[in-house]
Structure formats: C-alpha cells, structure tokens
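My current task is to audit a protein record that another person submitted. Thanks in advance; the entry in question is below:
***
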Amino acid sequence: MQQKLANDTGALDGALPNGTLPQPGYPTRLGHTVILPDRLMARDPLDLLYGSLDLLILQTLAWEPMHGYGISNFIRQRTAGVLEIVDAALYKCLHRLERQDFIEGEWGVTEENRRAKFYTLTSAGRAALRAETSAWTQYVAAVHKVMEPA
C-alpha cells in the first residue's frame, strides 16, 4: 500500500502549520534526536547495542570473570569506543542475567583495592551464549543477504 503524500487540500501530510516539513530524524533511546541531513539514514550505535547487550556481556565473561566496570571497559576498548554502555543499562542487564542463572556474582576486591562484585559465566550461561551467538550469526547473515546486490 502506498503512503498518501498529500491531503485533500493538496498540502503534504505531516507538514507543520507553516507549511514546512519537519526535520527528518528520529529519537534515540536516550532521548536525543538524530538529524538526517539530505535524507541520509543514520543509526545511533546505542540503539543497536541494547538489543544485543546480553550477548556482549556473556561473550565478555567467557574470556574471564569481571566486575561491572571491567565489563563496560572491555566492550568499550574492543569496539574502539563505538559502544559505550550506560551504567544503569549494564547493571540492569547483569541483574537479569544473574536471576536467569546465566552468570554468578561474587564479592571481591579490585586491583585498586576496592570492593566489587565479580561475575562469572555459568554452564547455563555458556549454553545461552552458544544459542545467542547462533541466533546473532543467522540474523547478521540474513541482513547481509538483503544488503548485497541481487
């Protein structure tokens, strides 16, 4: 079905009262508006991050046990700063993964002699990581098929 571009008066649908069209763009999860110059489509990496945060955390913990800041720092360093996890989202995800028995937390002391909760991947977490990795790989392959020339 085609989208109607003009209303009955001939004005463009979505036009502001002064007759101009709103700036193209979209709101991000963090409440920012990304303006799309010349109708180019851009994406805030954080929008994509939150859909894959469980996978990123599980994979990070597959390397070694870490505390929350260590997990966040590891992901930021491995992605050259493209992915930065907001603390609230990180800890919400860690608590959810802990409730699902995918990770276990144990209090310990950091290298800076600070008390922190260190998270370890459980056997159920390893199984979840394998399943999530498989699903992610299938998803990426499907998107790639759409993106490549016919």
User: Anything to note?
Assistant: The chain has a mean pLDDT of 77. The beta strands are 25-27, 33-35, 66-67, 103-109, 115-121. The chain is about 45% helix and 15% strand. Residues 123-147 form the longest helix (25 residues).
